Amino acid sequence: MTDILTTMNERQLLLLIKSCNLRKKHEDILIMRYVENMSCQEIADLKGKELQTIRNEVCIARKKFYNKIG
């Protein structure tokens, strides 16, 4: 199965994420990770959080995203 988060262009992906009505924190983390192509370490540094916390947040946000799009 192809991972839609890594195969769509940035504009399409941004529109899809925005249309899912995710909680803001989940939307933001998906946009930083997959639209802005930031590493988990870059996101952790920006947010002042531990790397593992960001990895967990990305995982949770991905699950919620895929549940919304079916």
How would you describe the overall organization of this protein?
Helices cover 76% and strands 0% of the residues. The protein is mainly α. It has a single domain (11-69), classed as Orthogonal Bundle (Arc Repressor Mutant, subunit A), CATH 1.10.10. Helix 2 (10-19) runs antiparallel to helix 3 (24-35) and helix 3 crosses helix 5 (51-69). The longest helix has 19 residues, at 51-69. The model has no long low-confidence stretch (mean pLDDT 95).
What's the quick description here?
With 70 residues, the chain is mainly alpha-helical. Helix content is 76%, strand content 0%.
Rg, Å, rounded: 11 Å
Please indicate the percent range of residues in DSSP E strands (runs of 2 or more).
under 5%
Q: Would you tell me which CATH topology applies?
A: Arc Repressor Mutant, subunit A
Structure summary, number of beta strands: 0
Low-confidence stretches: none
CATH class: Mainly Alpha
H-E string: HHHHH
- The count of domains is 1
How many helices in DSSP terms? Answer: 5
Q: What's the architecture in CATH terms?
A: Orthogonal Bundle
In one word, what is the shape?
globular
Largest pleated sheet: none
The chain-level structural class is mainly alpha
Mean pLDDT over all positions:
95
